[in-house]
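Weekly modeling sync, notes
Attendees: AB, CL, MP (scribe)

Item 1: holo prediction request
CL wants a bound-state model with KG4 before deciding which constructs to order. AB pointed out that an apo prediction alone won't tell us much about the pocket. Agreed to run with the ligand included and paste results into these notes for async review.

Input as submitted:
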Amino acid sequence: MNRQVTILAIETSCDETAAAVIRGGRTIISNVVASQIDEHQRYGGIVPEVASRQHILTIDAVLRKALRPLPGGWNDIHAVAATYGPGLAGALMTGLNVAKAIAWIRELPFVGVNHIEAHIYANWLVTDAQPEAPAPQFPVVALVVSGGHTLLALLEGHGRYRLLGQTRDDAAGEAFDKVARLLGLGFPGGPAIQRAAEGAPGGVVLPRAWLRDSYDFSFSGLKTAVLHQIRDYQAREAALQPGTGKSAGKRGVGASSAPPEATATPPLPPTIVARLARAFQESVVDVLVTKTVEAARAFGAAEILLAGGVAANLRLREELNRRAPVPVRVPPVALCTDNAAMIGAAAFYRFEAGIQHGWDLDVQPNLALNG
Ligand code: KG4
Ligand code: ZN
């Protein structure tokens, strides 16, 4: 394998405009991520049109910064890669078209990358803390938990996947974001819930959707359970306050005519928020860890790889490490959330296997793991 192949990778599938230069699939030469979070925060979630516009405004500066450490500049790049799905169509278009244009002008090979596969490949990147870390050993069981995806996959070799299970409704990160909104915490919800849950007292236990005999997941019922807890609390409070009557419950969270996501959230006392955040997080972590550990045993995995934005969750890391029968690998937090370094890592192994794409490769917003 030629360890010196240097790939310029671009990622614009959601709300991060990112470019990176990766050598030999594992070494990060540069890794630039411009987050749009401030642009979206005021809407409480990601607005596709805002994301597309921001990518166009930002991509040039991000690319220039990513190329800066290369002594030979463009001449040091051997191939160009970009995410082509899954993700927001308009957002994906910017990165994919910029990458194709660069590859065409500079007569370089072009590799399209699956964003979910790339999250898993974040585990192949080495960091300054562990520059000599060995590459993951196959077979591996990978748990991908992000804002858009939650799935368990078995990897028997590079590019050889078996999808074991996936979410039937909300992705784990989406559940974190929706429940954070119900609790009046900010966006993105994952870090906010983790912070709120820290040091919170136990006592509240929320349901777990086990979906027996399946590696599938479901989180929408858990979200509804949180909503019911909030309503119950508000009903109790309203009953204790003469004069406000039951109407407080009606105006409050989850007024019955509106869907949970669309409902305004009046402030809840911090202790209630903390308890529910903890109970919610424990429920998600329990289901994710139990199924991952079962899969690792069933398929004789040599390692478990954690990937995606929710892999940043400290309780998930802690619990998986505690219960796993084999070593658990988790990328550093900055490589768990969306970035282009992981795109460069995934692209390298595809490129080494002889895979390249033509100029006709289009965005595929619903691209599956095997797609
Ligand atoms: O992978 P990612 O950056 O974007 C997608 O491809 O979806 O994941 C973003 C998701 C968000 O839903 C965010 O709330 C969640 O990852 N997240 C976390 C944490 N940090 C980010 N969820 C739980 N705990 C965290 N510490
Ligand atoms: Zn992602």
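Recorded for review: The two ends are 25 Å apart (CA to CA).
Action items: CL to compare against the apo run; MP to circulate these notes.
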